[in-house]
Write a structure and sequence with these properties.
The structure holds 2 protein chains of 2 kinds.
Chain A lengths: L2 H11 L4 E5 L6 E4 L4 H10 L7 E9 L3 E9 L6 E9 L4 E3 L8 H12 L2 E3 L27 E2 L2 E2 L14
Parallel strand pairs in A: 2-5, 6-7
Antiparallel strand pairs in A: 1-2, 3-4, 4-5, 8-9
Chain B lengths: L23 E5 L11 E7 L2 E8 L7 H5 L7 H6 L6 H16 L5 H30 L3 H21 L8 E2 L2 E2 L7 H24 L2 H7 L7 H6 L5 H4 L7 H4 L25 H25 L18 E9 L2 E9 L7 E5 L1 H6 L2 H4 L5 H11 L3 H5 L1
The chains are: A alpha/beta, B alpha+beta.
Chain lengths: 168, 387
């Protein structure tokens, strides 16, 4: 199926979900609202014609004003792809989990929670995965300031002039 | 009245119930020889049986993605070397192709062929390590020496073409860092001639060894649908009988010009998707890689491999998800550019990360010793898991 057909199928089933559809970029994407997102993903996986059984990648992005999560889906049987995007505000960063649909999302969402601070609702095990449990802040956000100390140990950054992205 | 053991004493000796056993929590790693690096697995065990296994990762987290946002497009390449440090060529390749596709850059033919040769040589080197260390995990020491003997020859070839033996920084955006020196092509062909018969040696000493089969067949079976749902890819997924290889299914570089087969697990020794199948896919894949190398080296066109390397990399604003087949599976780079000198975001979809995540699903009910066999058969590299 082409991206346009995939878009039309979702549009037919969930009329209020799609915010934006862009077919002119290298990899066409569909921007969705956070509510009903879990149902949309369930539909994408289970619908016979779509059958997106593989979540290739799930990535957090900091757009400045907003945070976002980008899902790259692939169908092993039909060999088509689509990109889904969900944006949330920095203050209220919450997205329904898809870990119950694609199990690989479990660790990917934990990683996004770890590095971007986006909370996934109904996730089975929402903990940090790469950083220590007592780490403060979310390092991949653009406004992150590196701490001077971790548990009383000084953190040296010999190759970096400043602590934040702007100062470097 | 019950007779007291110590009539004079107020205390009764409590005889424990001989059948009562406690669940024991056992920490396997992070300093453990069979976890292939600094991986910790928290085991809940009932005697010798594993009830649950929870991998704890992050010990080798080096903030690749944060670093990538603060360095130029080209400076990212040495960092990608350090993700999967035993298949660095393949890591370079994925990133370079991703950036090229965003720039819409045509790459010199000779450079494309050289890329395929080094990537497949590196695949063999990586699979050799997987074989050797897997033998060590199971308790066979000698195969490790065999594979290192042959891996050494590949490293010598790499040293000759780019000067490095482990972290190459060889595949650049738009081409390769150095053209092949004189006589290198012949040495590659010589190596392939030397190497192909050697695979039989590994089969004789390890693959069809009775003890090895007893330890690996029917252990740690990953059903195909579970594997796909957990994002397992590469030899680990093909071991489950799924015919999925990005070199065929989502072709990149010049792979569509070569003839090779995709190896899948057939359940020869036990069940489809057991650890022996995953191991066997790697062994058979080395044949296929050798086939590709032979074709590429024979067809290697003349030209200047550095011709199309841009002086300044200008990536138009946009985003791209590039995935390539590394020895461990689907390595994805999700690259976002805002048109500036530096990437806005480089996310690595690491195959070892996803392959490891299937462990909690298949571990319950196996013996502790078999868990070692399962972790070894997934062939994880912790540098890539933690990034």
């Amino acid at each position: 199926m082409t991206a346009q057909e995939i878009h039309d199928t979702i549009q037919g089933k969930f009329p209020d979900v799609i915010i934006e559809f862009n077919d002119s970029v290298l990899q066409p994407y569909i921007k969705c609202t956070p509510n009903q997102f879990n149902e949309v993903c369930q539909f994408l996986r289970d619908e016979e014609e779509l059958n997106f059984d593989a979540l290739m990648n799930c990535s957090g992005v900091d757009y400045g004003e907003e945070l976002g999560v980008v899902y790259h889906l692939y169908s092993m049987t039909h060999r088509h792809k689509i990109v889904l995007k969900v944006n949330v505000t920095r203050e209220n960063a919450e997205i329904p989990t898809v870990a119950d649909i694609w199990r690989t999302a479990d660790w990917h969402e934990r990683e996004i929670f770890d590095l971007y601070g986006i909370n996934f609702i109904n996730h089975p095990d929402m903990r940090r995965i790469l950083l220590p449990d007592d780490w403060e802040g979310y390092p991949l956000r653009k406004d992150y300031v590196q701490p001077q100390f971790y548990n009383g140990i000084e953190i040296a950054h010999p190759d970096m002039k400043g602590n934040s992205d702007e100062e470097k | 009245m019950k007779k007291s053991n110590f009539p004079e004493s107020q205390f009764e000796l409590q005889i424990p119930d001989p059948l009562r056993t406690d669940e024991m929590t056992l920490s396997m790693g992070p300093q453990h020889p069979s976890t292939h690096g600094v991986l910790q697995v928290i085991l809940k065990t009932d005697g010798e049986i594993v009830n649950s296994a929870r991998p704890q990762i992050g010990y080798l987290h080096r903030c690749f993605e944060k670093h990538a946002e603060n360095i130029t497009w080209h400076q990212v390449i040495p960092f990608t070397d350090r993700l999967d440090y035993i298949a660095s060529m393949n890591n370079n390749l994925g990133y370079a192709i991703g950036v090229e596709r965003m720039m819409n850059l045509e790459v010199n033919e000779r450079a494309e062929y050289l890329r395929v040769i080094v990537a497949e040589l590196n695949r063999i080197a990586s699979h050799l390590i997987a074989l050797g260390t897997y033998g060590l995990d199971i308790g066979a020491f000698t195969p490790f020496l065999y594979v290192f003997r042959d891996r050494e020859k590949i490293l010598d070839l790499f040293e000759e073409i780019c000067g490095a033996r482990l972290l190459y920084n060889y595949v650049w955006v738009g081409g390769v860092a150095y053209d092949a020196p004189e006589g290198w092509r012949e040495k590659v062909l010589e190596f392939v001639d030397y190497f192909e018969p050697k695979i039989k040696e590994y089969n004789d000493i390890l693959t069809y060894n009775k003890i090895f089969i007893e330890r690996t067949a029917n252990v740690g079976v990953i059903p195909a649908d579970v594997g796909i749902s957990y994002g397992v890819s590469g030899p680990s997924l093909r071991g489950s009988g799924v015919n999925f290889d990005l070199r065929k299914d989502d072709p990149y570089s010049v792979y569509d010009r070569f003839e090779f087969d995709v190896i899948t697990g057939k359940g020869e020794m036990g069940t489809i998707g057991d650890t022996w199948d995953r191991y066997w896919v790697r062994v058979a894949e080395m044949y296929e890689s050798a086939k590709i190398i032979r074709q590429a080296a024979e067809q290697l066109p003349e030209g200047d491999a550095k011709e199309t390397i841009p002086r300044n990399i200008k990536v138009p604003a946009g985003e791209y998800y590039m995935r390539t087949e590394t020895p461990r599976g689907e390595l994805g780079y999700y690259i976002i550019s805002d048109g500036g000198k530096m990437p806005n975001r480089v996310k690595v979809r690491s195959p070892a990360f996803c392959n490891l995540s299937v462990l909690p699903a298949i571990a319950p009910g196996v013996m502790i010793a078999d868990l070692v066999a399962i972790i070894g058969s997934l062939d994880i590299v912790l540098g890539e898991v933690d990034r």
